[in-house]
Amino acid sequence: MTPNAPEPTQFATEWISAWNSRDIEAVLARYTDDVLFTSPTALRVVPASEGTVRGKEALRSYWVTALESNLDLRFELIGVYAGVDTLVLHYRNQRDDLISEVLTFRQGLVAVGHATHHQHREEGVNGRHRYFPFSAWGSEGRRRGR
Questions:
Q1: Shortest CA distance to 34 belongs to which of 107, 116, 89?
Q2: Measured distance CA(102)–CA(37) in Å, rounded
Q3: Domain 8-119 class in CATH
Q4: What is the Cα Rg of the chain in Å?
Q5: pTM for this predicted structure
Q6: Taking the domains of the chain in order of start, what are their residue ranges?
Q7: 82-120 pLDDT, tens per residue?
Q8: Distances 38 to 71, 115, 116, 133 between C-alpha atoms, Å
Q9: Residue 2 contacts residue 85 (beta carbons within 8 Å)
């Protein structure tokens, strides 16, 4: 932990809990007014953003819109990783997608955030996804050996 970043486990637990409660204001309270946030979901939900959301008000608007189409939103924390003024929250969402949020802090608040999504999955048993390391994938985007 560094002076600018909060205690990792506590931050992650409270962040996940706020999302699972659909409490956008509790999540936003942890971000600076001038936050810069990138996300593949922002690109899909707010195409004009080109995947980059600037400022807390724009982030609020994006998240409200995204939640309207994700009534069953649920996050399960997998891991928390700490760096210099940075935390990475690794979690699984309600669709079984793996996501890592890379959050860089300034004075205890998220100043820059990047949501990153695992790209390679196949349908597995009982509708669960199976994930494969990138080394298992060829340059053509298909799993080797298939």
A1: 107
A2: 10
A3: alpha beta
A4: 16
A5: 0.80
A6: 8-119
A7: 999 999 999 999 989 999 999 999 999 999 999 999 875
A8: 22, 6, 9, 23
A9: yes
